[in-house]
Amino acid sequence: MISSNYYKLSEQYLFSRIGRIISERHGAINLSIGDVSLPLPREVSEAGARAAMELGDKSTFRGYPPECGYDFLRKAVARYYNDRGVTVDQSEVFISDGIKSDMAMFFHVFNRGKVLLPTPCYPAYIDVCAIFGFEVSFYEDAPSEEKADIIVICSPDNPTGRAKSKAELEAWVRYAKRTGAIILYDAAYEAFVQSGAPRSIYEIEGARECAVELCSFSKTAGFTGLRCGYTVVPSECGLGKVWARLKSSLSNGVSYVTQRMAECALTSALDKIRGNVKQYLDNAALFRSALSGADFVGGEDSPYIWLRVGDGKAEFYRFLDEYNLGVTPGYGFGRNGDGYVRINSFCSKENAIVAAQRLRDWVRGRG
Amino acid sequence: MISSNYYKLSEQYLFSRIGRIISERHGAINLSIGDVSLPLPREVSEAGARAAMELGDKSTFRGYPPECGYDFLRKAVARYYNDRGVTVDQSEVFISDGIKSDMAMFFHVFNRGKVLLPTPCYPAYIDVCAIFGFEVSFYEDAPSEEKADIIVICSPDNPTGRAKSKAELEAWVRYAKRTGAIILYDAAYEAFVQSGAPRSIYEIEGARECAVELCSFSKTAGFTGLRCGYTVVPSECGLGKVWARLKSSLSNGVSYVTQRMAECALTSALDKIRGNVKQYLDNAALFRSALSGADFVGGEDSPYIWLRVGDGKAEFYRFLDEYNLGVTPGYGFGRNGDGYVRINSFCSKENAIVAAQRLRDWVRGRG
After folding, report:
1. Domain B4-40+271-365 belongs to what architecture?
2. Bigger pLDDT: A91 or A334?
3. Does the beta carbon of B239 lie under 8 angstroms from any beta carbon of chain A?
4. Most CB within 10 Å of its CB: which of A134, A234, B199, B259?
């Protein structure tokens, strides 16, 4: 009776399993699961506290939120795009409790088809394709002649930490428009882009006709514990009505308290959340410098560094046993992941300094 | 490319459409969409405010919540059952952002099959079966010989407001065990039961082997704006591992702030949330008395009254135009809904007094 799709999944979700192994190791610095460590800006907490108190007062109580999000937040998100010259209307912004939920919503829209996934790949994408029974094919870099209904692009990429260039994204948009495919663009790490690479697929001409963009407050604003994200469904792609209709049957929207906190993060606390991102990027710069001489990418436009290590599984345990560092073994990200580990820079500054020294020791120890 | 299942849905989700029509009518009292009106108990708001402030402090910051819920809340939910003599272990409690999300999770577990739905039926169940492509058959009351994989039972029922008796539920549990079906038991309105009817399917012997129970803080604790629910997946039914695994790929859990508020609702604020439920039941008693002489059920174990009116659509407009009352036309609940309207008692006491008078006028006006 249980869905046969379930049996296609690995026994435990990668990050849960790795997290357990690392947390049992006393003194290890965890550079594995991509969870933030800096507290929220005080304004954001206060916006939440205020909203919670409003719900306890007769004159300011609110019930069901609008299924697609409060206008105040949809507007703040649209402005977050507009202020960097990207055209997004607030009616095209759909608030969610995070990218995982919107991934599922996206697959509900299509129900069946063939998906092109990057490789290595964030495992939740592999899982969701299995759960929904979509056919999967992997791409390594640029579009080939292979046809698909859906193309998943994550940029800056998880796990490699690489941001796709404008030219690369242009090639994908051309491909999607030629073949009639839809791009599912995961921009969860857009706030980390420093190099001038695109932060949104909508910086590419024609993308509004063929791309849906998923984003989240988790990494941008440290909201992993609060659960808030958004999806842009441009009017030109013709999916907005379907999206809104499915959302009304599958969800009842996102907490008013959370939405007020998210609004604050994008408005009065915007400089502070940018400061937090900067601190994680500073950690990444420390790691990059410590890894000098090793073979890696990422860490410039992303909190992730993708490090070539040889035998990924053995090296995961060597990092843990000999250097007291928890990293994520690359094999968990599928084909092309083996032989690498992912390191993230979400730890505190103090831990980053210690971890950088341990990475330096690891580089020396390789010899 | 868009899922053919989408085209099986009605154009707009019933409650959104009805809500719009009523909200445009000046002076109408809305007894339609089942949204609460009483503010949260002050302790609950304060628990939320405290939790929001914790996230702004380095020493108390928390990132990703556990995917299946914080232990403090799972424990509070288990105790909420245990205190009325129902066996539920905290490991069997899965926290969600509401029943709609857990309905979807449930259908992911099975992926395909035949579903028995009640009729009349809460429309989100009809929608979710369509979205997932399940075959649907309707039952009127007791089990027949018809076989199915899943049986949805809502008690106290939405829309009829009737709580199933112990004997009725025993018949369904026997049927499920004989046929190998799984019961999806929606207990969203359990807190309203006054008559001694079961509040949980687990009050029925053998139900732990064949039933999953969905519940929510929305109506129990006035959490419609906060989004929190829970599902009990008993160890005997053998679905807990699948549930946890799917949840880890399809969601990242529920806001820490919300979970602290829910914990407070089930512990220190429990008497107050019971007081709020009592107030809604008092409103329902006013309505029942006003409707004396008319043909209706519900309103004793439920905030809903299911009133026979003749032509449901015409009467919906007559309630609105002549009596300034927004009700829900029964045809939106499918077969057996036509000819009825649903009235809820979630309004303020002041509005309930005015609405009761209008209902009395309606009863007189029928002659």
Report:
1. Alpha-Beta Complex (3.90)
2. A91
3. yes
4. B259
Based on C-alpha coordinates, what's the Rg of chain A? 20
Complex-level ipTM: 0.96
pLDDT exceeds cutoff 90 at A312:
no
B49/A49 CB distance under 8 A: yes
- The pLDDT, as a whole number, for residue B8 is 84
Phi-psi sector, A113: left (phi>0), alpha (psi -120 to 50), beta: left
Ordered alpha helix ranges (H), A180-311: 217-221, 240-250, 256-266, 270-290
A43-266: CATH number: 3.40.640.10
Give B140→chain A minimum CA distance, Å. 23
The answer, for A257 touching chain B at a CB cutoff of 8 Å, is yes
A57: nearest CB among B11, B39, B109 = B39
Measured in angstroms, the CA of B24 and the nearest CA of chain A are apart by 16
Give me the pLDDT at residue B357, please. 98
Q: How far is Cα B200 from Cα B107, in angstroms, rounded to an integer?
A: 21
Does the CB of B111 have a partner CB in chain A at under 8 Å? yes
Are the Cβ atoms of A255 and B36 closer than 8 angstroms?
Answer: no
Neighbour tally for A305: CB within 10 Å = 28
Contact B6/A245, CB-based, under 8 Å?
yes
In the predicted model, is pLDDT for residue A119 greater than 80? Answer: yes
Contact A56 B62 (CB under 8 A): no
Does A176 reach chain B within 8 Å, measured CB to CB? no
Please state the domain extents for chain B: 4-40+271-365, 43-266
The pLDDT score that the predictor gives to residue A13 is: 66
Q: What is the mean pLDDT of chain A?
A: 94
* pLDDT band, very low/low/confident/very high, at A335 (cuts 50, 70, 90): confident
The reported pTM is 0.96
Q: Averaged over B74-101, what is the pLDDT? A: 97
CB proximity under 8 Å: B 149-168 to A? 149
Query: Across chain B, what does the average pLDDT equal?
Result: 94
CA distance B92 to B202: 12
User: Could you tell me which chain B residue has the CA closest to the CA of A67?
Assistant: B16
Is there a contact between A305 and A298 (Cβ–Cβ < 8 Å)?
A: yes
Tell if the CB–CB gap between B224 and A252 is shorter than 8 Å.
Answer: yes
